[in-house]
Design brief:
- It is globular and about 55 Å long.
- Helices cover about 50% and strands about 10% of the residues.
- α12 links the parallel β7 and β8.
- It is α/β, with parallel strands linked by helices and about 240 residues long.
- The strands form two sheets. It has a four-stranded parallel beta sheet, with helices on both faces. Strands 6-5-7-8 form a four-stranded parallel beta sheet, sandwiched between helices.
- The protein has two domains: about 120 residues, Rossmann fold; about 110 residues, Rossmann fold (3-Layer(aba) Sandwich), CATH 3.40.50.
Length: about 240
């Protein structure tokens, strides 16, 4: 099974170890993993901001780069959601043969935990020094792809770790890509409420599936004076790459 790893631009630039963790998990599941070296962005920022022309250009580029893969997997519900849920509509006016290839690509694109649980059915065996975990449901993964139980199924198998649900775990963290830039005051209020719920859970770590949410939540926690609560991507936890 040939799996294309869509690293995502945020992971590449801000937290590369998430990409390496995803690679480790996919290889452990028996996949032949390819990582196209020229990959960049999925086009979501342009798409969300109304710049359809640049979004279309990037989407066609992604479709070309991953055309030979049996599956495409991303450690991001938002990027996987962009490809799976929005590419067919975004590229509806391109030539028919190319459009069919894009629709096929969308159908075989998965968020990482969904792929591990529902496609390859691989649950990593991992011990962790983290004793208590709370999980934040990122908006795109939850609402576009139905990512809810998949990460919890995997995290529940970690030896010695307890999963504690925070209040309003499905509520937005306030990031929302360009939303946090355009509506900073509203975003800060939403992030503050999210951090209050994280603190209320009493968990040692908040775990999630999108780096944008990670950066937003971690930044707010630190500004609140919380230097203790770990903010981790689910791939990092499952691959045992939580240090540093």
């Amino acid at each position: 099974m040939k799996v294309g790893l869509f690293v995502t631009c945020l992971v590449d630039l801000m937290r590369p170890r998430i990409g390496f963790a995803a690679l480790q998990l996919l290889e452990a599941a028996g996949c032949e993993v390819v990582v196209p070296s020229a990959q960049t962005c999925c086009g979501q920022p342009g798409y969300n901001s109304g710049d359809r022309a640049s979004a279309i250009t990037l989407a066609r580029k992604v479709a070309c780069e991953f055309a030979g893969c049996d599956y495409v997997v991303a450690p991001s519900g938002s990027c996987a959601g962009m490809i799976r849920a929005h590419y067919p509509e975004l590229l509806r006016d391109i030539p028919e043969a190319e459009r069919a290839a894009v629709e096929a690509l969308a159908g075989r694109t998965y968020e990482l935990t969904d792929f591990l649980v529902n496609v390859v059915r691989h649950i990593p065996a991992i011990n962790s020094s983290i004793k208590t975990i709370t999980y934040h449901d990122s908006c795109s993964g939850l609402r576009e792809l139905g990512i809810k139980q998949q990460p919890r199924t995997l995290l529940a198998q970690i030896e010695g770790a307890e999963l504690r649900e925070m209040n309003e775990c499905e509520q937005c963290c306030g990031f929302g890509g360009t939303f946090a830039i355009k509506y900073g005051d509203i975003s800060s209020h939403i992030a503050e409420r999210k951090c209050e719920n994280i603190a209320g859970s009493g968990a040692d770590a908040v775990v999630l599936g999108d780096l944008g949410c990670m950066l937003n939540i971690e930044g707010r926690l630190r500004r609140r004076g919380d230097a203790v609560t770990q903010v981790l991507h689910v791939a990092e936890v499952l691959a045992g790459k939580t240090a540093g």
